[in-house]
Amino acid sequence: MPPMEPNHALPFLGMATIAAGCDHGGFSLKTLLVDHLRDSGHEVIDLGTDSAERVDYPDFAETVAKAVAQEEANFGLLVCGSGIGVCMVANKVPGIRAATIHDVTSAHLAREHNDANIICLGERLIGPEVAREALEVFLNSEFQEGRHTARVQKVNRILE
Ligand code: RB5
Hints:
binds D-ribose; 5-stranded parallel beta sheet; 5 strands; alpha/beta
């Protein structure tokens, strides 16, 4: 692992259960990240896809989002070509706050300000090292509550 950015306090939040999914456009990166998460001691529920054969991203994004919404997993990891389609799908499931993440900064802000519970990544847009570091930072950042709490409640209320 490359070192984390200096001055970015990373609380140790312990091991998580992560539901992971992808389409063909995200299969290579999802495989790499699932291996990394398991090597790090996290539990991963890999919900597919299981090959580079062409599939439809909504099928996998919905399955992962429902696993997180039903609290079968603490967080979700979704990978497609851009990280956009899977994010659109996941955010249609009540209780989900999914964010497309491009770097370490968006990774910690999505947790700290938005209490995101699914990280979406675009295999065709970011490299594996950035993706791996962003995922680590996402999992190790905490929702800051305070002024952000009422805003997140307003987000949640839209689908209630
Ligand atoms: C598949 O070609 C691609 O459209 C998909 O992986 C994703 O980027 C959609 O948002």
